[in-house]
Amino acid sequence: MKKRKVKKKYKILILLLFLVSGVSAMYILKNNNELVYGAKSFYFNSDLLIASGTNAKNYTLQDGVDSITININNYDDKLRISEVNINYEVTLTDSAGAEVSKKTGTLTKNVKTDKAITFDNLDAGSYTVTAVATKPYHKILTANFHLQATNDNIEYSVTDIKNSQIVQLTVTTKDYSGNATITFPENIIPDNTDPYFKNYDKQTNANAYTVNLQNNSEYTFKFFKSVPSTVYTKSNFTITK
Fold first, then answer.
1. Confidence band for 39, pLDDT divided at 50, 70 and 90
2. Total domain count, the chain
3. Could you identify which of 177, 190, 193, 222 might form a hypothetical disulfide with 215, taking C-beta atoms 3.0 to 4.6 angstroms apart as the criterion?
């Protein structure tokens, strides 16, 4: 009986190469070691967004902030940089899932690139930012952001005890910056060694004086009492913008 020779025309070797970015590359070799196909290095990351499917990142921004800025990049470190141009889309959606804005662009291959994406003039509320690498490979990064309404209130409190020579007024701001007029009882006068009251004159200003306040600040103003036995409370003061 004749033995049949089985000649293999090709030897195929499939290697799975797992990159740090999670992208796998498949190489197919013929018997002459010719490379048929090979996936390039691919990195698509962000400073605030994380890969879709993992535990969602949630950020609450300061009162009054009306913009969201995220960064995307094409590297893991200075040695591991994408070898392909990456087309991307970054989409902002509201709490109902409706698209608010979308931005597109390309991260250039072989160049370590950071791209800042900003969505501004936003109302208070909850938003989701989703960055998608659309070509040549696909990867999704996402995070949730909560923007809080502007707080223009001026909060204040008064500290005083019987027979004290001084009453203290503490003023706190969050988002408000600008002038505020402090009205106080007739039998007390502000400490004019305080730079905020250095130009105060009782005859001219009587019992009201305007100071300039900055946002996210706290001020303590002293007033001297002509009748120490009198105890003053918050209701004896008003602050208007």
1. low
2. 2
3. 177
Both structure tokens of 71 = 């960064």
Alpha carbons within 13 angstroms on the beta-carbon side of residue 222 total 10
> Same domain, yes or no, for 94 and 61?
yes
pLDDT in tens, 141-158: 999 999 999 889 999 999
Look up the domain containing 53 and give its range.
45-147
Q: Quick check: is 231 in a domain? A: yes
Beta bridge mates, 15: 27
Sheet with 154-159, side-by-side order of all strands = 154-159, 166-173, 218-225, 188-190
Burial 7-39 (b: 16+ CB within 10 A, else e): eeeeeeeeeeeeeebebeeeeebeeeeeeeeeb
133 located within any domain: yes
- Give the C-alpha separation, 182 to 235, whole Å: 12
| Cβ–Cβ < 8 Å for 240, 156 | no
pTM, two decimals, is 0.60
